[in-house]
Protein 1
Amino acid sequence: GDSVTQMEGPVTLSEEAFLTINCTYTATGYPSLFWYVQYPGEGLQLLLKATKADDKGSNKGFEATYRKETTSFHLEKGSVQVSDSAVYFCALSYNAGNMLTFGGGTRLMVKP
Amino acid sequence: DAGVIQSPRHEVTEMGQEVTLRCKPISGHDYLFWYRQTMMRGLELLIYFNNNVPIDDSGMPEDRFSAKMPNASFSTLKIQPSEPRDSAVYFCASSLGGATQETQYFGPGTRLLVL
């Protein structure tokens, strides 16, 4: 079946450091890919998405490129802030049913 | 729009009691999802509805769990009887179905503690 694998956390960085959170997927078809973010005490919210190969999703300085050849969708940000501290979830979905398959989540901690 | 609304935000109950969690999806959304989040198991999909009809309940852990969606603006997740291992954060999410992989919008969650 379909699955999403993320790097285990926590990832601890200093403010203004470069961020990469790895995400790879296994899928039988051509899903859409998502990054969701969960701030402390809140529900998940969509950060960015890409719907086909080579698409780049971007939002709030975060970027991720849909790489079909490596089945990856790594999240990057050039300069993290303390306010980026949260748990990040990679996920995939197909058209039918709108069901999301989530990875295990990666906690990011940014220190001043 | 107010977003997905869940109530209560926190619930503390004793083992054996019935627990009812409530969700109001975003108006016009035709998909509704119930998730459970724990440290051990991460985020799990319990059940989802399309146009108020349950489509996939394979994630519901056991018969103690049941979910209903009597109309397009309300859903409940019930646990009867509750057990300490049910302690978790329960999220409701809704989305607008269609061919363009619409985003799921999550509520703030209900934090359940069963003593």
Protein 2
Amino acid sequence: DVKVTQSSRYLVKRTGEKVFLECVQDMDHENMFWYRQDPGLGLRLIYFSYDVKMKEKGDIPEGYSVSREKKERFSLILESASTNQTSMYLCASRELLGIDTQYFGPGTRLTVL
Amino acid sequence: QKEVEQNSGPLSVPEGAIASLNCTYSDRGSQSFFWYRQYSGKSPELIMFIYSNGDKEDGRFTAQLNKASQYVSLLIRDSQPSDSATYLCAVNAGGTSYGKLTFGQGTILTVHP
């Protein structure tokens, strides 16, 4: 079974703080993704990575950066958190063998005060 | 802009009925199609995938794909209250897209006893 884990289920931060969200997969997947999900807006892609140290912007990268130093770990960084970044953040990993699709971690509900 | 459209609902069906969820997509070159189920407060979970025109059945679920009309649907037979969730349609354009998925906004399904 594909296993994707995220460092926190719930996180509360203050405006202006630097925030790190961690995602780890244990299946040696090359492609990993960060989304945010908001009511009425659906799932929106922030960034994705197709290999170690390789990344590409998604649809809404502003205010975010990412890091992928090791294949199994993909981090999302909020350089200076703002209240409009309060959201559910979902990490996904792409399974190529068998069904070519994405499997999601449990999500991190981030609140920025 | 590649788009995936779903009726947001809510769709309400009685227990034991057939629930029919629909999705249309704009990119005619799309290769593979997925249905994810998302319970409130949880992350999306893959329940069906389909690559070829026609029907694909898995237990109570049937996915239907019509590439000429650019629509994909999900039928849930003998609906149960535990099927109450948001259903996300996702489309993979294929090629060198690194497995990027475009998601619809989701349809909220409520199955009432």
